[in-house]
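tool_call: predict_structure(chain=1)
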Amino acid sequence: MGTTRSTLDDATAQFILAQRMFFVATAPLDPNGHVNLSPKGLDTLRILDPATVVYLDLTGSGVETIAHLKENGRIVLMFCAFQGPPNILRLYGRGRVIEPLESTRSIIMIELTEIRDSCGYGVPLMKHEGERPHLPAWARKKGPEGLEAYRCQKNRRSLDGLPGLVE
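tool_result:
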């Protein structure tokens, strides 16, 4: 069965770094607001210490994670073993947004408050075929000025009208 701890041990850190993707979930305080769940990849996550992780928040069409973190700081990251022994790992914490950055929309820093794993028996086995080149190519094509304009147009407010990026 699952275990609960407050910091990352070496085995858990190795599991995290071996995963090709993870999921990020946040929610606004308003019970009628949109819960957000986003897949992340492209080798963007780093472990700073046993209680802190960060990931690059690349430019996208929505700004829910940023808006929710600015409002209440609640965040959970989920990792699933799609290869090897079954496992699901959730990192609960308080997140903050570091912005703006020239080539990346922001960095999300999470101070971990709880770490839980579970069996993962229902997660399918899948093979990783590679990273999709689309997002980096799209960002290169837009260039710094184009990305800034895109973020100003698409990332100012969340779906629920919460403040997003300040640009």
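agent: The chain has a mean pLDDT of 95. Proceeding to next step.
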